[in-house]
Amino acid sequence: MALANHSFSTSALSLAVSILYALLLAISSLASSSPSPYQNSPVQKWMPRRVPAGAEFVGDQVCAECHRNKVTSLAQSGMGMALETGAESRVLIANPTMTFKTGPYSYEIRRKDSNSLYTVTDGRETISLPILYAVGQGKAGQTYILQYEGGLYESHVSLYKEVGGLDFTIGMARTIPPSLKAALGKRLSDNEILNCFGCHSTGAINGGLIHLDRMTPGIRCEACHGPGGQHASASKAGQPGDKLIFNPRRLGGDELSQDFCASCHRVNNEASLLKSKDVDSVRFQPYRIFQSKCYSDDRRISCTACHDPHEPLDRNAAHYDSKCTACHSSRGRRPEVKSTETQPLAPTCRVGTKDCVACHMPKIGPPEAHFKFTDHYIRIANPKETHPQ
Fold this sequence. Notes:
globular; seven-stranded antiparallel β-sheet; alpha+beta; four-stranded antiparallel β-sheet; 13 helices
């Protein structure tokens, strides 16, 4: 009887141990298969002007912990300086006094203390306001955002580098304003405010609403890469974080140029609007490049093939020769051809071997812009043509 009891106890104990072991294995397997906190919510897609509600940006200082060189150069680029506060605008500091007159209206932008005042007067009444924001880095020009009677206004006059002073803002009627309030500038609609700050700043638009208190002036890292908090935390923890941040390199050439970059630089499907602007459309590079005979889904003709968005724009024509010869080479191998045999890529120029863009991407300037823009409609340009659509 005692032997039987002992045998039963041993069997029960073995069974209990087996169950416990299986349970521990299950728990261990579950734990190993559970994603780490740094593997959640992979960023599949990000669009600069479609920031979802609740998106939280950590700021450039966090990005700089690993990418200091890129953050530093971006801050000095056209994108990084797309918007500055009136107090910090380098252009306004360098131009402490500017004046302009049209009809009975006199304009003055004068630096006072730590800001610049925008003043317009008809000789009897005067409106004088601090400049809230300066739009544009000043290479071509700079326009100003003012606050008046509870609304935001686009200044009626802007600074143009070519003339070294003020003139009518592009889009403003070049006639004498009917009133002092109209002479101040144009009151921006809600949609215009969203578009303006959505393309010239970081973090100002969240869920389709404007939040200037959260804004970082200029296009910074997270404007194009999305919120970087999880990515930064993963990197600090020694975990893979590449899927926790958006990298535009994942996009094909056409999607990059005509969707991602064009969300601010204007896209081909806005052609009906742009054509109505005639020569003014030269400012909208994705629309113009789409007209090019050589345009395709090839990343070698996408925006970032020629321009590093982290760097100031290179204005040396010779810099772009290698970009052109990436396709227009006498011998090479087509990407779609699996054979190792070299084959022609695209016709080579029969006229010149350098400064390609000088002939094939001529500079065109809307008169009111006081600046010649590189036309991204790549073609054999005819010197007699005015502005091909």
